[in-house]
Amino acid sequence: MSKLPQSREAVVLLLLVALIAVIGLINPSFWEPKSLLSMLNTSLILILLATGEMFVILTRGIDVSVGAMMGLAAVVLGLALNAGVPLWLAIVLTLLVGFVLGAINGVGVAFVRIPPIIMTLGALGVYRGMMLILTGGSWIETIPQSIKTLAGMKVFEVSVFAIATLLIVLLTTLLLRRIRQARYFYYVGDNEDGAFMLGIPVRPTQAVAYALSGLFAGVAAVIFVGQIGFVPMQTGYGQELNAIAAGVLGGINLSGGVGSPVSALIGGLFLTVINSALVFLKVPAFWNNAIAGAILLIVVLIDFRVRVAVEMRQRQQRANVRRETSAAIQPSFTPEESR
Predict the structure, then answer these.
(1) How far apart (Å, rounded) are the C-alpha atoms in residues 140 and 138?
(2) Cβ of 102: how many Cβ atoms within 10 Å?
(3) Spatial contact of 54 and 263, defined as CB atoms under 8 Å apart
(4) Cβ–Cβ contacts within 10 Å for residue 183, how many?
(5) Residue 58 in contact with residue 260, Cβ under 8 Å?
(6) What phi and psi values does residue 154 have, to the nearest 5 degrees?
(7) CA distance to 19, 44, 85, 219, per residue, from 15 (Å)
(8) Backbone phi, then psi, for 236, in 5-degree steps?
(9) Closest CA to 76 of 62, 57, 95, 60
């Protein structure tokens, strides 16, 4: 199960490097450290949302409410800061709100047995409505300087938010590989019935996956508010589709059981670089979605061909082993000779 996702990640990573190289040859300013760091900072929200979505997809689910959860969490953060709540406490509250919103989705899907697309689509509408209720339909335009100061902090010219995001991805990857219970997400998505027969808590695992999706949406909300400095009512609109696309592009399988935080990282970077490249190439903005979609289809097609080739090679190797084993156990003498 580990080799195939690595092939998708390798393909997308090579294409990402090639894309950066080609655009840099056309417009050398694309290679400047300032431009690369700007693209990294722009990709942080998408990377976090895709990582949270990864947990849900691993269990063979789908969450189309991640953008709405991020928007509602951002509203809570803005209101809390404007109410005089200390920054650290407001951030904790935001993360808790995201976790609870995701847990609500998880309970609905795992225990009430509402289909994931129906549950999260309904939650999307509810969470968007709550944003309007809490803000009265207006933007939160004034945010205390504390969150902006945090967003502006840098270490060797790299923003604290970027470092934190990369550390989160690294830590999540290590936990998924090292902790046995974290592997339950893969087992449930790969074979739910088989996981149940092995004694794995299938429904709690599914519920936790959605709760983690909400938690990562809360982290994305903190970064969003810090970077932009206000909370528009459009916060998070369309991000759910981008998060799913980034995950699939990076190697997360919609059929469940395959993927990693690295997949979300690479996919998020790739989509961000595409959008930035179109700006550097002065391509009209209305072409962005069409070009990004076409590149996504090309990458998926290349990955499909790679997977087919790998599987054919594996089948051939297994057939060769069977033939060699069969030849080795054949008797070296005939029945007549034994008499």
Answers:
(1) 7
(2) 31
(3) yes
(4) 14
(5) no
(6) -135, 155
(7) 6, 20, 45, 29
(8) 85, -5
(9) 95
Go through the chain and tell me how many residues it has.
339
Enclosing H/E stretch for 81 = helix 66-82
Whole-angstrom Cα distance, residue 115 to residue 235?
26
What is the crossing angle of helices 261-280 and 33-58, to 10°? 140
Residue 135, CB-side half-sphere exposure with 13 Å CA sphere: 28
pLDDT at 328: 67
Q: What is the predicted pLDDT for the residue at 338?
A: 47
315 burial type by CB count under 10 A (0-12 exposed, 13-18 middle, 19+ buried): exposed
Per-state percent for the chain, helix, strand, coil, to nearest 5: 80, 0, 20
- pLDDT tens-digit map of 289-307: 777 778 777 766 766 676 6
Longest dimension (CA), the chain: 99
Domain range annotation of the chain? 3-325
Residue 243 DSSP one-character state: H
Q: Which amino acid is at 156?
A: F
Contact 116, 62 (CB under 8 A): yes
Q: Retrieve residue 75's tokens.
A: 């509203």
**pTM of structure:** 0.86
CA 81 vs CA 30, 160, 220: distances in Å: 37, 20, 17
Reading the block at residue 21, the tokens are 């190289």
Comparing CA positions, the residue from 72, 80, 77 lying closest to residue 127 is 72
Contact in structure between 63 and 116 (CB atoms under 8 Å)? yes
Out of 1.20.120, 1.25.10, 1.10.3470, 3.30.70, the CATH code matching 3-325 is 1.10.3470
Whether the CB-CB separation of 75 and 134 falls below 8 Å is answered with yes
How many C-beta atoms lie closer than 10 Å to residue 288's C-beta? 14
Q: Are strands 154-155 and 158-159 parallel, antiparallel or unpaired?
A: antiparallel
CA dist., res. 101 & res. 98, Å (int)? 5
Q: What is the pLDDT of residues 200-247, one digit of tens each?
A: 999 999 999 999 999 999 999 999 999 998 999 889 888 998 899 899
